[in-house]
Amino acid sequence: MPKLNVLVAGSTGYIGVQLIKLLIKHNNVNLKYLCGNSSVGKNISSYEKKLSSKKLPKIIKYKKSLLKDIDLIFTALPNGEAQDISNDLFEHNVLIDLAADFRLNKASEYLRWYKQKHRSIKNIKRSIYSLPEVNGKNIRNFNIIGCPGCYPTSILLPLIPLIKKNLIKTNNIIIDSKSGYSGAGRGVHKKYKYKNLYESISPYGVGFHRHNSEIQQEISKYTKNNFSFTFTPHLTPMFKGILSTIYVDLNKNVSVSKLEKNLINAYNKSKFVKILRINSLVSTNDVINSNNCFISICKTKYKNRVIILSAIDNLIKGGAGQAIQNMNLKFRFPINRGLQ
Amino acid sequence: MPKLNVLVAGSTGYIGVQLIKLLIKHNNVNLKYLCGNSSVGKNISSYEKKLSSKKLPKIIKYKKSLLKDIDLIFTALPNGEAQDISNDLFEHNVLIDLAADFRLNKASEYLRWYKQKHRSIKNIKRSIYSLPEVNGKNIRNFNIIGCPGCYPTSILLPLIPLIKKNLIKTNNIIIDSKSGYSGAGRGVHKKYKYKNLYESISPYGVGFHRHNSEIQQEISKYTKNNFSFTFTPHLTPMFKGILSTIYVDLNKNVSVSKLEKNLINAYNKSKFVKILRINSLVSTNDVINSNNCFISICKTKYKNRVIILSAIDNLIKGGAGQAIQNMNLKFRFPINRGLQ
Amino acid sequence: MPKLNVLVAGSTGYIGVQLIKLLIKHNNVNLKYLCGNSSVGKNISSYEKKLSSKKLPKIIKYKKSLLKDIDLIFTALPNGEAQDISNDLFEHNVLIDLAADFRLNKASEYLRWYKQKHRSIKNIKRSIYSLPEVNGKNIRNFNIIGCPGCYPTSILLPLIPLIKKNLIKTNNIIIDSKSGYSGAGRGVHKKYKYKNLYESISPYGVGFHRHNSEIQQEISKYTKNNFSFTFTPHLTPMFKGILSTIYVDLNKNVSVSKLEKNLINAYNKSKFVKILRINSLVSTNDVINSNNCFISICKTKYKNRVIILSAIDNLIKGGAGQAIQNMNLKFRFPINRGLQ
Amino acid sequence: MPKLNVLVAGSTGYIGVQLIKLLIKHNNVNLKYLCGNSSVGKNISSYEKKLSSKKLPKIIKYKKSLLKDIDLIFTALPNGEAQDISNDLFEHNVLIDLAADFRLNKASEYLRWYKQKHRSIKNIKRSIYSLPEVNGKNIRNFNIIGCPGCYPTSILLPLIPLIKKNLIKTNNIIIDSKSGYSGAGRGVHKKYKYKNLYESISPYGVGFHRHNSEIQQEISKYTKNNFSFTFTPHLTPMFKGILSTIYVDLNKNVSVSKLEKNLINAYNKSKFVKILRINSLVSTNDVINSNNCFISICKTKYKNRVIILSAIDNLIKGGAGQAIQNMNLKFRFPINRGLQ
């Protein structure tokens, strides 16, 4: 089978390690280079003992010349660094970014939310934001691919089909999300050091989390209505998983079963998005260690209000798994290769 | 110091044990009888080793004649059982119920939500629902006292003052609550046995949790407006604590700082309700092992929408601690005795 | 590819569900019947939403006639029930038991530790205890296969090669094991209901846990010395994983590196047992969600004493994975099929 | 009531915060200065919201002149810093150190285990190591008091009385300890960043943890026999608590009940050390949030071997609580003041 030569930049973060664990099982991938920073010279197995039986290259420092031998580079780096790498790309390279560098279409928005100037504005235009089930169609025309954030993945998958078909009100959406602490990266402990993250639930970024901009941008593509929503993330005392509880008002004459049918239709060909029966109580546990997104619609005591539950594994469907799904789309591999 | 002779019925549940742990430190309490069911004949210390150094009476079966020697009985029993005991009361007895038997004013509502006929309708009328900071004033006129549920405590404390003064819209309130699993009682494991409750977050009772009725009843006392709200509880992988994230729209010309002042005024004499600075990120960890309720108001990107965070320890302020607060009120003990 | 028709008895316990999750990925398996008790008529997906996308047979009641169509039956039942089923077997059936019914060679030992008479003594003799890396060779001669317990798996794998070659003292071995609570089955909450299992560590079965007998029996096969050991299991606040910390004294003139070499040799062909470098700090996290056993030898300040660390996933290598490994051995499938 | 003027140096670590939470309830304490480093200028409540209702001094930088107004200084600082402060002490000052600076009697041992030269050797001689139940008697003669480490506290309390009376063998003691991760301080996340500390159990410092030296030193005071032991600490996925499982061989003609009586006698006047009935299964949960140490002796299948279980709250009896106990002893306050 033909194999892509692959480089992973940012091998030792939670997402990087998860990515490597998935890529070593993918038949079309040859993991040629693993790049890191403080980890240069070490084996990835010293970051994850589970990888100790695999023969993997040592971690090296990234430099442009490595890209010559490479078909595909994954970047799982702090925000800003994939931009610089994108300026190094040769014609034959494909870059899939798992951070936020190619999520926002406008450099001004990037500056506003990420507090740094974008250093590769020309490449923003050459990139595609790809939530594979939704925006994946045109991916073959692009060599720079931005993967959605973890929260937006859990939120956009249920909302886009409903908003596209004008089934729900777009001016009063409340999104209350709960994430395992791995979502905040290995630095979470430093960032929240006066919280007992492990036996306590804590909201953060209330009203102003960065993912607001991404959700706004993507939803706006599918509606001309004013779109306003309130999004609150919470750190939950568990390692992995995101549950988004989304409060939505129906448009006139729209029934709950119409909502359900719409979602089923939207995802009937998807291998990963599952619409459960109405009123199913989705837990993060249902999707952990898989690339699935489980969605259910729950009735309330008000006819015109429903609660949508949406759960993913933040490191897989919200991170490494989704990136591989984008690779499969881009290179026309079977969509679930490496993800079963 | 004069001491009340106290009986605890339902000594061995999570709430019962917590109650005993607090009562043994209360200077006005003589723990005369501990009652149980399958635990009869045992020592309470076999349920909680922390109590092993205290000399406490053995657990016995409840019977009416015990009430003769008793000033005060606490009932921490399955719903329905406090009703029967209330029919046994002598004139000199006070009953404080920690379950739901004396929360709802209408027997029909009780039947609807708890699926059983109320067996002491006459005593409903003779009882008071007492959230001490809000309804406590008249408690001295009643001998049967119903304590609020854990979720409603965290929800009513911030909402009632705002609704009373007509500062927020009452027709679009979203309440997303997260509770440690002790809130579901020792039976939680049986009830949710196919969930991994300890490394996963799960919604439950979506749209139709019993506490809806209690919240509806209590808020309606303070407004003539139509009051409509959506409440979703979640089981969170931690033992104790409730965080309610409440989404609220302001009435015209009401500022966030007006909201804040209103709450500060409402609770400036309270020893237990603390209004934190605007945008404070309240965690359950901040209130665990105390009788406190911490509340903060957070701004969103929309001027007229705020998020209210409210956290309590479900077994203390949402259970045993609040019951003791009601005892202190009823018997004119200092309000924080036994609760520091 | 030829497929075995497989029946799983006890589909809905932790081990049963884990077994089904692995079997559906095994190319030689056709899951023909899933059997249960209180779950009859339901879909396995109502016990594990992750299985909801697979077409699996409904849960039915076990009866002898089902065995006609079946090549292989897995029993993951309460102790005692596999015995009865073993009495139903046809000549062509293979039974792999994941409980304790075919672990002990002597019915008297079974009675002593499991407090019930063995109901199929003749089948004990026709069965093999198979820890695949150690006793697997003769498995093809037997149609009833007993799988080791979870604790013994983590303990026997490091100890047997060392004892066989007479490298360590057999009269002073201390084994301190820590397990996630899934090891105690879904009933753990009832059994330990006055413990807070989720934020606390608790020893149990101190001095007298049932697995003592199995360890004693197996080790004794490899040494004529008196074998005496002390084994203490602990419930640890995590869902899965076992770590055994084993304190061992070396025989005269035996060096730590000799120990290491011996273990490396013993398992150099094993796909699942990995001997890490001396002094490696093995965590349960290193093996979770895999069929691996990770072992390391750690030096102490005393030349003749070492600490052996051994970690497995109790539901996989200590349960369902090992059972599949035994199936692969018995039917000559590649040893790691379905287990990668 | 007369009040001591107290300074806390190292206010914002886990131990420092716990200490302040206890001291504010102590009737003989006036918290005059809180000192910190990066936290200078802040309120302690920004590190622990539970302290937000108390009027406490702002955090300032420590300097010698502060000691003029002070009766007692607690140091909860990184190892090495209390030494420097001890060189500043005026005659009237008492220093209680919660780190390791005054635990080891020999500067050479300090250098060996803590990898730094001791900078106040003269003060080592003027200091006392005080495990209050054991070495507390002479505390009034010393103005510098070293508090035991958390692991040693849980280990020395059961072992010293048994060794003093020559009831157990001193050459084959195995100590397997399990601690919540708060025991490793706020820096634990950085130190163990490639471990998933929160859903996994991990041994560390195997064979060579620093507390070895302290245990060795203290036990050697009570026996002339050779004392050799193996101690392994483990990080357990819970916030607080230590359980030590100690494997011990009895001397000839010593019965288990003799052991029990000896321990009961040794601690019959202690308010905090409780000897439970033989074979009691002690969990960390039994002692959390208290200054208690719970000890039980468990039989094994070997007459001459027992397992001793010992549990404490590492931040209280293993830290701040024990420091306050030492203060109460030193200043002749009731021993349990501030610790109930």
Automatic annotation (TrEMBL), chains A, B, C, D:
<keyword id="KW-0055">Arginine biosynthesis</keyword>
<dbReference type="InterPro" id="IPR023013">
    <property type="entry name" value="AGPR_AS"/>
</dbReference>
<comment type="pathway">
    <text>Amino-acid biosynthesis; L-arginine biosynthesis; N(2)-acetyl-L-ornithine from L-glutamate: step 3/4.</text>
</comment>
<comment type="similarity">
    <text>Belongs to the NAGSA dehydrogenase family. Type 1 subfamily.</text>
</comment>
<feature type="domain" description="Semialdehyde dehydrogenase NAD-binding">
    <location>
        <begin position="5"/>
        <end position="142"/>
    </location>
</feature>
<protein>
    <recommendedName>
        <fullName>N-acetyl-gamma-glutamyl-phosphate reductase</fullName>
        <ecNumber>1.2.1.38</ecNumber>
    </recommendedName>
</protein>
<dbReference type="Pfam" id="PF22698">
    <property type="entry name" value="Semialdhyde_dhC_1"/>
</dbReference>
<keyword id="KW-0028">Amino-acid biosynthesis</keyword>
<dbReference type="InterPro" id="IPR000534">
    <property type="entry name" value="Semialdehyde_DH_NAD-bd"/>
</dbReference>
<keyword id="KW-0963">Cytoplasm</keyword>
<dbReference type="InterPro" id="IPR000706">
    <property type="entry name" value="AGPR_type-1"/>
</dbReference>
<comment type="function">
    <text>Catalyzes the NADPH-dependent reduction of N-acetyl-5-glutamyl phosphate to yield N-acetyl-L-glutamate 5-semialdehyde.</text>
</comment>
<feature type="active site">
    <location>
        <position position="150"/>
    </location>
</feature>
<dbReference type="InterPro" id="IPR050085">
    <property type="entry name" value="AGPR"/>
</dbReference>
<keyword id="KW-0560">Oxidoreductase</keyword>
<dbReference type="InterPro" id="IPR058924">
    <property type="entry name" value="AGPR_dimerisation_dom"/>
</dbReference>
<dbReference type="Pfam" id="PF01118">
    <property type="entry name" value="Semialdhyde_dh"/>
</dbReference>
<dbReference type="InterPro" id="IPR036291">
    <property type="entry name" value="NAD(P)-bd_dom_sf"/>
</dbReference>
<keyword id="KW-0521">NADP</keyword>
